[in-house]
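In the design runs reported in the main text, the only information available to the sequence generator was the tokenized backbone. The following block is the verbatim input for one such run; it is reproduced so that readers can re-run the procedure and compare outputs position by position.
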């Protein structure tokens, strides 16, 4: 781990050490304001709050996972996201990135817990094995279950990064041989934010941490504990193929004329109507594309049980009429309800009507 990752002090001091200019901080703050649906005028205040904020001590635990979550963050197309996030936090323990190994690594975790008692944030990627006492996933002679309970005890809050730690994910798929569970099934006395996605979007991980550091409180969460600024809309509502859905134009195979014209992938199994995430707006690889734009339906990877929810290539329950009106099954109706208004317009409206959007009143973690 680079030294600067785990140094204490303010975000402003960390940026200066890295030679990052105030202009870059302002640029990032303005980007953050857009991501969080805050008024553009708030970027100055965000920059000021960030520069003076203490770097958040973070202990990052990796359990049953594929390392896709940390890869998503560190291989992010936009280096500014990665650089900025590591300046916002003091990353005191992270098995994939840290140089320390063995006893020294475990000591670093215990020392960070002691030094920042009640103030550190635990980031977890991966699900937790619970069968037979959790023996199916261990590190340094301890089960993930033990390490999670031990580390969470004096934490301020927990950030479950990825669908595995948020909802169990692929390790929890049938027949779930390790008794995999999400963090929220084990830790019930701490605030938990679920940043789901398999993997989650780097901008969403970074934006959520930046929100915590800037405002000193949790963002508003949806009914599954996900930050609403990123998970408030479903993929279908924001999809550029949506006009074809409304016109009843559906690709029947991945290489037919409709597919080549960019028609809707609903009949090829796209789960966009029941999936909440920011892929259709922020997109991946520096706003380059996302699965639906690349010609494949959404798999629904940010939703609970996505792996066991039936074939990725079977259409959602319901039927389409010739006029393009959907008569959806019960599971899909709720997700599609309220579709229509443009994403940017909705964000602006939310920003204008939400007094808590002002970054000038940081509060304690109170949710
Ligand atoms: Fe899970 Fe993440 Fe999917 Fe992989 O750490 S959310 S399998 S991208 O790696 O936990």
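Verbatim output:
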């Amino acid at each position: 781990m680079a030294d600067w990752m785990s140094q204490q002090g303010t975000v402003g001091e960390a940026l200066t050490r890295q030679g990052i200019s105030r202009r870059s901080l302002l640029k990032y703050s303005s980007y953050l304001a857009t991501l969080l649906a805050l008024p553009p005028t708030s970027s100055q205040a965000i920059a000021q709050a960030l520069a003076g904020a203490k770097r958040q001590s973070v202990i990052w635990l990796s359990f049953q996972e594929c390392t896709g979550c940390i890869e998503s963050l560190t291989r992010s197309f936009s280096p500014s996201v990665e650089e900025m996030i590591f300046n916002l936090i003091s990353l005191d323990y992270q098995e994939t990135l840290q140089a320390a190994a063995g006893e020294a690594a475990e000591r670093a975790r215990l020392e960070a817990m002691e030094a920042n008692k009640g103030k550190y944030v635990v980031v977890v990627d991966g699900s937790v094995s619970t069968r037979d006492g959790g023996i199916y996933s261990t590190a340094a002679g301890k089960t993930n279950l033990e390490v999670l309970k031990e580390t969470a005890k004096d934490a301020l809050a927990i950030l479950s990064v990825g669908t595995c730690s948020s909802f169990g994910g692929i390790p929890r798929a049938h027949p779930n041989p390790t008794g995999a569970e999400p963090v929220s099934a084990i830790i019930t006395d701490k605030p938990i934010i679920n940043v789901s996605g398999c993997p989650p979007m780097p901008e969403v991980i970074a934006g959520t941490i930046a929100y915590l550091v800037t405002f000193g409180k949790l963002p508003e969460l949806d009914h599954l504990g996900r930050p609403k600024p990123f998970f408030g809309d479903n993929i279908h509502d924001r999809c550029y193929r949506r006009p074809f859905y409304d016109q009843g134009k559906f690709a029947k195979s991945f290489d037919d004329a409709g597919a080549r014209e960019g028609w809707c992938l609903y009949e090829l199994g796209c789960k966009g109507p029941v999936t909440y995430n920011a892929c259709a707006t922020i997109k991946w690889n520096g706003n380059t594309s996302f699965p639906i734009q690349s010609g494949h339906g959404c798999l629904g990877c940010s939703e609970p049980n996505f792996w066991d929810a039936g074939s990725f290539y079977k259409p959602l329950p319901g039927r389409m009429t010739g006029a393009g009106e959907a008569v959806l099954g019960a599971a899909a109706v709720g997700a599609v309800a309220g579709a229509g208004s443009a994403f940017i317009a909705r964000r602006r409206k939310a920003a204008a009507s939400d007094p808590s959007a002002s970054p000038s009143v940081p509060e304690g973690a109170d949710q």
